[in-house]
Protein backbone atom coordinates (compact mmCIF):
# COMPACT_ATOMS: atom_id res chain seq x y z
CA UNK A 1 0.00 0.00 0.00
CA UNK A 2 2.90 2.37 0.65
CA UNK A 3 3.73 2.07 -3.05
CA UNK A 4 1.12 4.78 -3.61
CA UNK A 5 3.00 7.10 -1.25
CA UNK A 6 6.37 6.29 -2.80
CA UNK A 7 5.08 7.02 -6.32
CA UNK A 8 3.74 10.36 -5.08
CA UNK A 9 7.02 11.24 -3.35
CA UNK A 10 8.94 10.58 -6.57
CA UNK A 11 7.33 13.70 -8.04
CA UNK A 12 9.02 15.87 -5.43
CA UNK A 13 12.35 14.13 -4.93
CA UNK A 14 15.40 12.85 -6.77
CA UNK A 15 15.87 10.06 -4.25
CA UNK A 16 16.08 6.51 -5.56
CA UNK A 17 13.25 4.06 -4.99
CA UNK A 18 15.28 2.19 -2.35
CA UNK A 19 15.95 5.46 -0.50
CA UNK A 20 12.25 6.34 -0.57
CA UNK A 21 11.33 2.87 0.67
CA UNK A 22 13.69 3.35 3.62
CA UNK A 23 12.30 6.83 4.27
CA UNK A 24 8.76 5.48 4.51
CA UNK A 25 9.56 2.46 6.70
CA UNK A 26 8.30 4.15 9.88
CA UNK A 27 5.47 6.09 8.27
CA UNK A 28 2.27 5.31 10.24
CA UNK A 29 -0.53 3.81 8.14
CA UNK A 30 -4.02 3.34 9.56
CA UNK A 31 -7.38 2.02 8.36
CA UNK A 32 -10.57 4.00 8.97
CA UNK A 33 -14.14 2.82 8.47
CA UNK A 34 -16.61 4.66 6.25
CA UNK A 35 -18.27 7.39 8.31
CA UNK A 36 -15.28 8.01 10.59
CA UNK A 37 -14.85 11.68 11.49
CA UNK A 38 -11.13 12.43 11.30
CA UNK A 39 -11.52 16.04 12.44
CA UNK A 40 -14.43 18.03 13.85
CA UNK A 41 -15.02 21.63 12.85
CA UNK A 42 -13.80 23.84 15.72
CA UNK A 43 -11.18 21.36 16.96
CA UNK A 44 -7.42 21.92 16.76
CA UNK A 45 -5.92 19.49 14.21
CA UNK A 46 -3.29 17.12 15.58
CA UNK A 47 -2.94 14.94 12.49
CA UNK A 48 -2.27 15.33 8.80
CA UNK A 49 -3.24 12.64 6.33
CA UNK A 50 -2.34 11.23 2.94
CA UNK A 51 -4.84 9.05 1.10
CA UNK A 52 -3.51 5.65 0.05
CA UNK A 53 -6.99 4.31 -0.60
CA UNK A 54 -10.48 5.78 -0.15
CA UNK A 55 -12.16 9.18 -0.17
CA UNK A 56 -12.18 11.90 2.51
CA UNK A 57 -14.60 14.83 2.45
CA UNK A 58 -13.80 18.33 3.74
CA UNK A 59 -16.91 20.25 4.82
CA UNK A 60 -18.27 22.84 7.23
CA UNK A 61 -21.61 23.80 8.76
CA UNK A 62 -22.41 27.52 8.49
CA UNK A 63 -24.23 29.75 10.99
CA UNK A 64 -27.60 28.80 9.44
CA UNK A 65 -26.95 25.09 9.87
CA UNK A 66 -26.23 24.47 6.19
CA UNK A 67 -23.56 21.88 5.40
CA UNK A 68 -21.16 22.95 2.66
CA UNK A 69 -18.67 20.64 0.95
CA UNK A 70 -15.30 22.20 0.06
CA UNK A 71 -13.21 19.31 -1.19
CA UNK A 72 -12.82 15.58 -1.70
CA UNK A 73 -9.45 13.91 -1.23
CA UNK A 74 -8.79 10.62 -2.99
CA UNK A 75 -5.78 8.42 -3.75
CA UNK A 76 -2.41 10.21 -3.90
CA UNK A 77 -3.70 13.39 -2.26
CA UNK A 78 -2.61 14.93 1.01
CA UNK A 79 -5.24 16.08 3.49
CA UNK A 80 -4.02 19.13 5.36
CA UNK A 81 -5.90 21.99 7.03
CA UNK A 82 -3.91 25.20 6.53
CA UNK A 83 -4.78 27.05 9.73
CA UNK A 84 -1.42 27.96 11.29
CA UNK A 85 -2.06 31.64 10.49
CA UNK A 86 -5.04 31.77 12.87
CA UNK A 87 -4.56 32.74 16.55
CA UNK A 88 -6.48 29.78 18.02
CA UNK A 89 -5.37 27.20 15.39
CA UNK A 90 -8.87 25.66 15.28
CA UNK A 91 -10.12 24.08 12.09
CA UNK A 92 -12.94 25.78 10.20
CA UNK A 93 -13.65 22.40 8.57
CA UNK A 94 -14.55 18.82 9.41
CA UNK A 95 -13.02 15.80 7.69
CA UNK A 96 -14.92 12.54 7.26
CA UNK A 97 -14.32 9.24 5.47
CA UNK A 98 -16.84 8.70 2.67
CA UNK A 99 -15.44 5.21 2.07
CA UNK A 100 -13.37 2.74 4.02
CA UNK A 101 -9.97 4.46 3.93
CA UNK A 102 -6.32 3.55 4.30
CA UNK A 103 -4.41 6.68 5.24
CA UNK A 104 -0.96 7.79 6.25
CA UNK A 105 -1.72 9.46 9.58
CA UNK A 106 1.08 11.82 10.54
CA UNK A 107 1.32 13.39 13.99
CA UNK A 108 1.78 17.17 13.71
CA UNK A 109 3.47 17.29 17.13
CA UNK A 110 6.35 15.13 15.87
CA UNK A 111 6.68 16.84 12.49
CA UNK A 112 9.87 18.74 13.38
CA UNK A 113 11.36 15.63 14.94
CA UNK A 114 10.84 13.78 11.64
CA UNK A 115 12.46 16.65 9.72
CA UNK A 116 15.46 16.62 12.06
CA UNK A 117 15.85 12.89 11.53
CA UNK A 118 15.36 13.11 7.74
CA UNK A 119 16.33 16.63 6.51
CA UNK A 120 15.41 15.71 2.92
CA UNK A 121 11.83 15.19 4.10
CA UNK A 122 11.38 18.88 4.98
CA UNK A 123 12.36 20.07 1.49
CA UNK A 124 10.11 17.43 -0.05
CA UNK A 125 7.17 18.42 2.15
CA UNK A 126 7.66 22.09 1.27
CA UNK A 127 7.44 21.23 -2.44
CA UNK A 128 4.28 19.20 -1.80
CA UNK A 129 2.65 22.07 0.10
CA UNK A 130 3.60 24.54 -2.62
CA UNK A 131 2.03 22.25 -5.22
CA UNK A 132 -1.14 21.88 -3.11
CA UNK A 133 -1.41 25.64 -2.53
CA UNK A 134 -0.85 26.36 -6.21
CA UNK A 135 -3.55 23.87 -7.22
CA UNK A 136 -5.96 25.34 -4.64
CA UNK A 137 -5.34 28.86 -5.95
CA UNK A 138 -5.89 27.77 -9.55
CA UNK A 139 -9.04 25.83 -8.67
CA UNK A 140 -10.46 28.79 -6.73
CA UNK A 141 -9.75 31.23 -9.56
CA UNK A 142 -11.39 28.87 -12.03
CA UNK A 143 -14.36 28.30 -9.70
CA UNK A 144 -15.28 31.97 -9.22
CA UNK A 145 -14.97 32.79 -12.92
CA UNK A 146 -16.92 29.81 -14.29
CA UNK A 147 -20.58 28.89 -14.70
CA UNK A 148 -22.04 25.83 -12.94
CA UNK A 149 -21.98 23.99 -16.27
CA UNK A 150 -18.30 24.82 -16.75
CA UNK A 151 -17.53 23.66 -13.20
CA UNK A 152 -19.18 20.33 -13.93
CA UNK A 153 -17.27 19.95 -17.20
CA UNK A 154 -14.00 20.75 -15.39
CA UNK A 155 -14.84 18.13 -12.76
CA UNK A 156 -15.50 15.54 -15.47
CA UNK A 157 -12.18 16.40 -17.11
CA UNK A 158 -10.12 16.32 -13.91
CA UNK A 159 -11.89 14.00 -11.45
CA UNK A 160 -14.65 12.01 -13.21
CA UNK A 161 -14.47 9.24 -10.57
CA UNK A 162 -16.11 11.53 -7.99
CA UNK A 163 -19.45 11.36 -9.83
CA UNK A 164 -19.82 7.70 -8.84
CA UNK A 165 -17.99 7.84 -5.51
CA UNK A 166 -19.76 10.60 -3.57
CA UNK A 167 -23.41 11.42 -2.82
CA UNK A 168 -24.88 13.75 -5.44
CA UNK A 169 -26.03 16.37 -2.90
CA UNK A 170 -22.43 16.64 -1.65
CA UNK A 171 -21.12 16.87 -5.21
CA UNK A 172 -23.65 19.63 -5.91
CA UNK A 173 -22.52 21.53 -2.81
CA UNK A 174 -18.89 21.17 -3.92
CA UNK A 175 -19.85 22.70 -7.29
CA UNK A 176 -21.78 25.49 -5.59
CA UNK A 177 -25.19 24.48 -6.95
CA UNK A 178 -28.43 22.80 -5.85
CA UNK A 179 -28.83 19.03 -6.36
CA UNK A 180 -31.64 19.58 -8.87
CA UNK A 181 -29.39 21.90 -10.88
CA UNK A 182 -26.71 19.21 -10.95
CA UNK A 183 -29.28 16.70 -12.25
CA UNK A 184 -30.24 19.05 -15.09
CA UNK A 185 -26.59 19.72 -15.98
CA UNK A 186 -25.83 15.98 -16.02
CA UNK A 187 -28.80 15.32 -18.31
CA UNK A 188 -27.77 18.10 -20.71
CA UNK A 189 -24.18 16.85 -20.68
CA UNK A 190 -25.28 13.25 -21.38
CA UNK A 191 -27.58 14.41 -24.21
CA UNK A 192 -24.80 16.53 -25.70
CA UNK A 193 -22.40 13.57 -25.52
CA UNK A 194 -24.92 11.33 -27.29
CA UNK A 195 -25.32 13.87 -30.11
CA UNK A 196 -21.54 14.00 -30.53
CA UNK A 197 -21.31 10.19 -30.62
CA UNK A 198 -24.18 9.93 -33.13
TrEMBL record:
Gene3D superfamilies: Jelly Rolls. Keywords: Activator. Coiled coil: none annotated. Residues 11-57 form the Cyclic nucleotide-binding domain. It comes from the Bacteria. The keyword RNA-binding does not apply. InterPro entries: cNMP-bd_dom (IPR000595), cNMP-bd_dom_sf (IPR018490), RmlC-like_jellyroll (IPR014710). The keyword Secreted does not apply. This is Crp/Fnr family transcriptional regulator. It comes from Halobacillus salinarum.
Amino acid sequence: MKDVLIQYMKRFSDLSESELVKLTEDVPVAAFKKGTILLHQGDVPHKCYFVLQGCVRQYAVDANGNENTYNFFTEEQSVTIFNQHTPDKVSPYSLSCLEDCTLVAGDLSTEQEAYDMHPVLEAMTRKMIQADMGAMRDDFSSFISSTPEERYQALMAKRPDLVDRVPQYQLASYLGIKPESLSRIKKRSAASHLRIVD
